[in-house]
């Protein structure tokens, strides 16, 4: 399966970002991509006003999503990203959306909020409470996560035990000491320990690192972007994934399948 990852610096104006996404969708579709993974919080961002993502939030039936759904109707690929949706009390939900051919296939509210490295996402965002369902794209079962979720191996393992073969992660990974190292180390670890492909797309620009990447089930980086706006592609091979899982059957050997966190999609 051919997949694409797009990254850019998100603008303050939602219409500019919608135009960018539509162009990326069209470019990826022209190159026969079946999946396009975009960054986290793509609706609007102002690096001088951290609350702007909340002020600019739109409902899922608002003009931002409506334009993307309309553009997707003539395309065959699935597009995946997150945006902020109003939640009341001057807060929002960080919602991952997967859309294809004019329909929303899946939504997921980010579970793990980024209260780390002097940032407090929970001050303005309401945390999700349930693990997302898997999404079928061609021959691959796809599990979704958002940014800070990457630092919680139990979430990736839960999705893998449900059958995920590809883990997809929109992100806005903040710059900082060793943060690029954390990004690559964690994506490669989640791929290897679960024998899954991982496609992680990160916003680039003055605040976030970019470096979108695709990792194979043995933890090898097979495609990677730099720090500038870019659209990259990678081929996922189901035969390779099957062979890796035969050679390294960690999911079969896992003895924690009956642990509550892996049985119920509800978090406690």
Automatic annotation (TrEMBL):
Signal peptide: none
Protein name: Deaminated glutathione amidase
The CN hydrolase domain, residue ranges: 1-238
SUPFAM superfamilies (alphabetical): Carbon-nitrogen hydrolase (SSF56317)
Family per similarity comment: Belongs to the carbon-nitrogen hydrolase superfamily. NIT1/NIT2 family.
InterPro entries for the chain: C-N_Hydrolase, C-N_Hydrolase_sf, De_GSH_amidase, UPF0012_CS
High-level lineage: Bacteria, Pseudomonadati, Pseudomonadota, Gammaproteobacteria, Enterobacterales
Organism per entry: Rosenbergiella gaditana
């Amino acid at each position: 399966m051919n997949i694409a990852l797009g990254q850019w610096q998100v603008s303050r104006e939602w219409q500019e970002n919608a135009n960018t996404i539509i162009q990326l969708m069209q470019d990826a579709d022209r190159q026969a991509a079946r999946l396009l993974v975009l960054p986290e919080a793509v609706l609007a961002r102002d690096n001088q006003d951290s609350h702007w993502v909340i002020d600019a939030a739109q409902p899922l039936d608002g003009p931002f999503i409506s334009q993307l759904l309309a553009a997707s109707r003539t395309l065959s690929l699935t597009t995946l990203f997150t945006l902020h949706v109003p939640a009341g009390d001057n807060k929002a939900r960080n919602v991952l959306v997967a859309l294809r051919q004019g329909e929303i296939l899946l939504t997921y509210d980010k579970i793990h909020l980024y209260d780390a490295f002097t940032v407090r996402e929970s001050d303005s965002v309401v945390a999700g409470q349930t693990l997302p369902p898997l999404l079928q794209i061609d021959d691959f079962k796809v599990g979704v996560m958002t940014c800070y979720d990457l630092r919680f191996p139990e979430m990736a393992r839960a999705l893998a035990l449900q059958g995920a073969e590809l883990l997809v992660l929109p992100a806005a990974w903040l710059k900082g000491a060793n943060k690029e190292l954390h990004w690559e180390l964690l994506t490669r670890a989640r791929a290897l320990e679960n024998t899954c492909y991982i496609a992680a797309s990160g916003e680039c620009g003055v605040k976030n690192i970019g470096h979108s990447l695709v990792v194979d089930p043995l933890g090898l980086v097979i495609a990677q972007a730099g720090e500038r706006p870019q659209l990259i592609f990678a081929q996922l091979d189901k035969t390779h994934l099957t062979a890796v899982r035969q050679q390294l059957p960690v999911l079969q050997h896992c003895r924690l399948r009956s642990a509550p966190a892996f049985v119920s999609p509800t978090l406690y």
